[in-house]
């Protein structure tokens, strides 16, 4: 009887103190399972935290569906799928750390605000367009899906047709047409609580984070402005178009809880050397993995493992 109880206790404790699982969401033009991107990140994580459970988000039935979903679809629907997907994974039930790459980081923030069941502990975003982009990202040569995406946007980024089909249009913020953005963009104004009525759940969910780490690349030319990775945004002020987060009502009036996180020391602005998504391994390990992903003090109670 005593033996049985101590085994049960040992198992429960192991679960409670085990390494926090990690969820990845890839960027535009990429997919869940590319060995050179999310695969490489997973390998680095496992080389430092061998027992970490890592899940890479996939939308659709295949890797090619998933890549396609990064260009085409309705983000609000994709997020509902992701909420169901993450809720169905038993290993994530006690919460996880979320690592978002480029647009995937923005979408993980939206997951937290809209669902957050299971809950995110630390959110880390790499070059994610939190403040919106004021130029549709360029395509690499030979990327036909991306070229199709750009040609569709030419029909008018704030038309209902494009808004309901092109992902990048759903976080496009035209500095010279703020009204069009607020009224026609079906995703970003809502998720940034910029609409007429704000959603208090978005704020409380984001505030429930342990740490929120936003990384921008100092030579990013993919997202315009590159500081959108820190929530900065372009306005129609010709002399001084760039607004820092701290200068925006979104921060000052704390529409998303960012100011509160900042005042508590839970909001972090990092700069990574390099171009968009050129993540140096040293930077990843020293600035991200060790401080924010690796659980501290994973000391197992030795006594419980002794023979009874
Ligand atoms: C706020 O967002 C939550 C989560 O998406 C949703 O369930 C709720 O209906 C929203 N509230 C309002 C007033 O729109
Ligand atoms: C895309 O390429 C054009 C031409 O090189 C450049 O002017 C523009 O700034 C680029 N846009 C982005 C988002 O990189």
Automatic annotation (TrEMBL):
This is Palmitoyl-protein thioesterase 1. It comes from Hesseltinella vesiculosa. InterPro entries: AB_hydrolase_fold, Palm_thioest. Keywords: Disulfide bond, Glycoprotein, Hydrolase, Signal. Its EC number is 3.1.2.22. Belongs to the palmitoyl-protein thioesterase family. It is an enzyme of class 3 (hydrolase). Gene3D superfamilies: alpha/beta hydrolase. GO terms for molecular function: palmitoyl-(protein) hydrolase activity. Residues 1-18 form the signal peptide.
């Amino acid at each position: 009887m005593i033996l049985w109880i101590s085994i049960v206790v040992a198992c429960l404790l192991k679960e409670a103190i085990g390494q926090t699982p990690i969820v990845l969401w890839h960027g535009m033009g990429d997919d869940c399972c590319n060995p050179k991107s999310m695969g490489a990140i997973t390998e680095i994580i496992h080389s430092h935290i061998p027992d970490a459970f890592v899940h890479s988000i996939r939308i659709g039935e295949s890797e090619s569906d998933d890549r396609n979903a990064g260009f085409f679809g309705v983000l609000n629907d994709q997020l509902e799928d992701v909420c169901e997907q993450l809720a169905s994974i038993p290993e994530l039930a006690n919460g996880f750390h979320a690592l978002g790459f480029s647009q995937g980081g923005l979408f993980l923030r939206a997951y937290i605000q809209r669902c957050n069941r299971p809950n995110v502990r630390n959110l880390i975003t790499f070059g994610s367009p939190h403040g919106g982009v004021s130029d549709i990202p360029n395509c690499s040569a030979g990327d036909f899906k991306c070229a199709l995406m750009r040609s569709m946007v030419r029909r008018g980024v704030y038309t209902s047709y494009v808004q309901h089909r092109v992902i990048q249009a759903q976080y496009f913020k035209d500095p010279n047409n703020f009204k069009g953005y607020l009224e026609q963009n079906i995703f970003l104004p809502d998720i940034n609580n910029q609409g007429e009525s704000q959603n208090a759940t978005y704020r409380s969910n984001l505030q429930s984070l342990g740490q929120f780490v936003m990384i921008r690349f100092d030579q990013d030319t993919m997202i315009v402005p590159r500081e959108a990775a820190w929530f900065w945004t372009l306005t129609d002020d010709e002399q001084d178009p760039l607004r820092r987060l701290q200068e925006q009502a979104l921060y000052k009036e704390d529409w998303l809880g960012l100011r509160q996180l900042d005042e508590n020391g839970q909001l972090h602005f990092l700069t990574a050397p390099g171009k968009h998504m050129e993540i140096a391994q040293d930077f990843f390990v020293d600035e991200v993995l060790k401080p924010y992903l690796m659980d501290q003090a994973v000391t197992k109670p030795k006594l419980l493992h002794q023979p009874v």
